[in-house]
Amino acid sequence: MAEVLRLHDGEALIARYPEENLDVKEITHVVSDTYDFPDYNACADALIPVVRPTWVQHCLAKKKLLNPRQYSPDPRYFMSEVCVCIADLPPGDADAIAGGVLAMGGLWSPKLTSQVTHIISLSMESETAAVAEKRKLNAKVVLPHWVDDCLKLGRKIDEHPYQLPDPEILKSINKPPMGKRKTPVEGALHPDPTQSGQEPTAPRKLEKVFKKKLVMLATDLGISPYLRGILNELITAGGGRVTDSVSKTDMYICKYREGQDYKTASRAGKDVGNLAWLYFLIQTDQWTSPMRRMLHYPVAKEGLPGFPGLLISLSNYSGDARSYLENLITATGAKCTKTLKQDNTHLITAHDTSEKCAAAREWGVHIINHLWLEESYARWKMQSITDKRYTHFPQRTNLGDVCGHTQLDRGVLEQKFFPDEDTDMTDAPATNPMGQANQNTFAPPSARRVKSEQISKTPRTPAASRVVAPGKENVTPSTTNSRKSKEVAASRLHMAAEDIALYEKETKRKGGVIYGGRRKSDPERVELGRKRSMDEIDDAETSNDSDAKKVKRSIDAPQMRLVISKYEKWKQLRSLGILITTDPSRATHLAAPHIVRTMKFVTALAYAPLVISTEFIDACLQEGRLVDPEDYVLKDTQNEKKFHISLSDSRKRAEKNANQLLQGRCIYCMEQITGGFETFKAIVEANGGRCILWRNRKGTTVPSGRADSEATTDTDANNDVYLLSDENKSAPGLLARFREMVEGSRKVAKIVKTDWILETAMSQQLRPTKPYEL
């Protein structure tokens, strides 16, 4: 590789770990088949692209520097090893899939070449699939549903159930999907291996991982002198030394994310890990980042805010994946229960076809996949269970296969646990740059201030690093200060936003990207501004970002995310910087012609959006620009009086409530209720309550509210139990048995009309039940 680079006028340096680290001031690119090497974060901070070896091959083949984003070894670009060729799909769907794959680090090829790994087709009868079969190419022919599910989850899942000619997802199979892959949690199942009596076992000889390294064992580990002596011997035998100086150490081993030594080591850029991480290094004799696996990093003694008191059960995970999730739940401060009961607050499941899932639906227990747990822990904030990523369960896929792929976020850890003493926290929020474009995707390492002497063992002056901008010559930033680095990083990530936004646009329209496109005559068809068809695109072996621009319009990052209720003229808004979303939790604005009692409108109010009139949309389309939404705040005094609310007051209360208006309250709903159970479930959950379908099953009891009681100061929150019912459809027997069940649990039954929950949610104020009781 080095000889090839030198032959083409490049300068090549070969990293020699562990004797010396990379000198980032002299490097423009790093070629590596893994992101897990000691200087990866230093490269990210210096905006030096890390690329897989295939980048060099493809650059030479095309005789130009290609965009390094599609060649990143970072697993957060989970499509990086995928190159798709799209066969018989409509142009709109093809553009959306190509954009989504490109945004997540993959490649798109307009022609069938040997580099193509997946052919996206609806059948084996397509010309592309037939040619691949005839030429016996290794490319797998899969349904577009595979790409759709990968992008929804933010993970690359097994393509076998989607593979033609006989895809499992189109069959009616009663058996639950079985896990097949080995998850990357081996050696990271428990943050403290001494609790299970485990002792470190080394290979015949440690040669690399501790060579010339200083290791400090913190006092909070609580290990015996005997075990400390064993670790000391192993580190010394591997060429390292144990030290008591946090300023001199290279590796700091501790149990908790607290204490002055922990903060000092973290701020200085030392490798900070726990005992499980140290054991893993000893067992493998290979360095790995302690942030790569969640339970290799010290835990927080007080747990994750919002999690202590939760009762979480697991279903359909087995082996290492189950042990890992059980211990991760414990690390958050929640309790993991072996069995599912009505007391449980959450059920984490690998697929939704099991008896536990059926029982959880009846009892109103939140059903989510493990991504909710992992990303809450990584971002150190409880993620919304209304996010569709956490409630998506692809058919014939066991999500245990993608367990353990989430990594800790350095920026979040810095902000929450070891901020600079001179940093104003109000001016330094944790960033998720890619999240500005799509909250459902992973964020690449964010640029942050790191002193040059923290990156290398020898002090040196900061130096500007050259970055390759797609389609341009190498450019040199004028400074490496924090603000400039963040601006450059945001600029680069903005390119990804275009691909993601294009994919999102297609998924929002009726049918999404997997049910066929629309005819040109369709009045609701979204124009993508394509200047030429795929067949007319330059015959390049593999596309890069500049190729992608030939199949999609330039789209700026959205300036607002808008929920629209009862209004159909929404086309073409995306080009004005308005992203239409169906997810109320992501909305910044809510548009309606007047106050309406639809699920979208009522649910969205819980997230405190600015409520504007749909005249705002008309004005934007008429003027061809984004007008000031403050000039179009919805005014509807007639309906405000009718529903006993004030929109401005409701928004203020919603900001204060923070989706916890119904925290600790249990609300049952009749099965045949007007509007449907799912409608009221969405409204209740958006306001922090639990909504349960009332079917009068024998042995049913009111779930315990103790898990939620710590989060609410209302002493009556767990005494009143509500049943939503229609006035003229109520069966007296069902109501009587509901009262018996509630009173048997020593609580107070409140049987009310649906107007109570609607007006409570719209006013963002708990209404007294008496005027609404049946």
TrEMBL record:
Domain of life: Eukaryota
Feature: compositional bias, Polar residues: 433-443
SMART domains attached to this UniProt entry: BRCT
Biased composition (Basic and acidic residues): 519-535
Classification via Pfam families: PTCB-BRCT, RTT107_BRCT_5
Domain BRCT: 1-73, 101-164, 205-295, 307-390, 571-634, 704-774
Stretches for region Disordered: 168-204, 430-489, 513-550
UniProt cross-references to InterPro entries, sorted A to Z: BRCT_dom (IPR001357), BRCT_dom_sf (IPR036420), CellCycle_DNARepair_Reg (IPR053036)
GO cellular component, one term: nucleus
GO biological process, one term: DNA double-strand break attachment to nuclear envelope
Record-given protein name: BRCT domain-containing protein
Species for this entry: Cladophialophora yegresii CBS 114405
